[in-house]
Amino acid sequence: MGANGQIRRGVALAGLAALLFGMTAPLLKRASAASGPLLAGALLYLGAALGAGLIAAARRGAAGPAPTVRAAGARLGAVAIVGGAVAPTLLVLGLARTDAATASLLLALEAPFTLVLARLVGKEFIGRRVLAAALLIFAAGAVLIGGALGGPGAVSGPLLVAAAALAWAVDNLLSRPLADLDPLKVVALKGVLGGAAAGVAGLALVERAPAAGSAAALLALGAVGYGISLQLYLRAQRVVGAARTASVFASAPFFGAAIAFALGTPWPGAAFPAAAVLVGVGLWLHLSERHGHRHTHEAVAHEHLHRHDDGHHLHTHDPMPTGAHSHPHQHETLTHEHEHSEDLHHHHRH
After folding, report:
1. Is residue 152 a part of any domain in this protein?
2. N- or C-end of the chain: fewer Cβ atoms within 10 A?
3. Which one-letter DSSP state was computed for residue 70?
4. Residue 173 covered by a domain
5. Vertex 270, ends 264 and 273: CA angle to 5°?
6. Is residue 319 reached through a cis peptide bond, with omega within 30 degrees of 0 on the bond before it?
7. Is residue 9 over pLDDT 90?
8. If we measure between CA atoms, which residue out of 170, 146, 176, 174 comes closest to residue 158?
């Protein structure tokens, strides 16, 4: 698989992750209506661990990646708290105070928040089109929040959803080094740790527990919308980097809004279509961005999940594996030119 094929594969993985995640917000609003936010968030991420476990069971016996998560305990703990406890709790609180369509669209803010953090902290390259895309999505968020100012206290819901998007952006940044490990183990551990932390906090605060049917729905939503979606997201980050993955993932809110309207969500008002246009244009700008130039890969020895059809892993095996695998390996110095993004092997200066 060449560089263009690798980018297409990463975009497809991120797009499927967006579809599965996007559908959860309107369904979550219903499933969490009669339970405390921390306990609802706990069940979501315990469901995520369940989803990852089911995938691991399905691939049992097949050649899988090496167990490479042992040295990432501290980072996994931080990811579990921020992305597995804080973010879903904020989202549940926000969904209780705003309509599902508006909340779904506001989750698009995760993309520009991730872009800003990827640039400021990870030093990832951000081109002009990507910057313009981020500004448009930020503007969309401002339109939605501004549109909620008409009702007393109504702005708290959109602000809580925006805060959840920011928390998930921090989660994305913290998760970037984990994307080169086994995604199923990462998602499973994140789900167990985050779900346990939120659950203990919810029980300590004597939150209202969901009924059996709601609890089952929350677990199912977590398994599909978070467990399967998150491991697809991590795989996409490994292929095309945090920034591009976040831009494709920005399509998730449109899936969520469509499902919300299908379920009977009332029309949110004139701010919604204006914001949707801004998000759509921003998403198009980012998806149509192309980046390629002559660059040099310095010699390096490291270990991470990799494939041998990406144009960078040229070492040999006997027999040659056909899928992703992990082992210590070395790259020789290589200079070439092709379209690329900010993945593990293209974090160079511009």
Report:
1. yes
2. C
3. G
4. yes
5. 75
6. yes
7. no
8. 146
- Non-local (6+) Cβ contacts of 276 within 8 A are 105, 140, 254, 257
CA-CA distance, 100 to 256, in Å (whole number)?
8
pLDDT in tens, 192-214: 999 999 999 999 999 999 999 99
- Report the C-alpha gap between 31 and 255 in whole angstroms: 18
In a domain, 131, yes or no: yes
Looking up tokens 């959840």 gives 164
> What residue numbers bound the domain in which 179 lies?
3-59+70-293
User: What tokens were used for 299?
Assistant: 């010699």
What is the tens place of the pLDDT at every residue in 320-329?
766 666 667 6
**pTM of the predicted protein model:** 0.76
Residue 333 near residue 298, CB atoms below 8 Å: yes
Please give the tally of structural domains in the chain: 1
Per-residue pLDDT, 63: 46
Q: How confident is the model at residue 128 (pLDDT cuts 50, 70, 90)?
A: confident
Note whether residue 202 is domain-resident: yes
What are 148-166's pLDDT values in tens digits?
776 555 789 999 999 999 9
Cis peptide before 67 (omega within 30 of 0): no
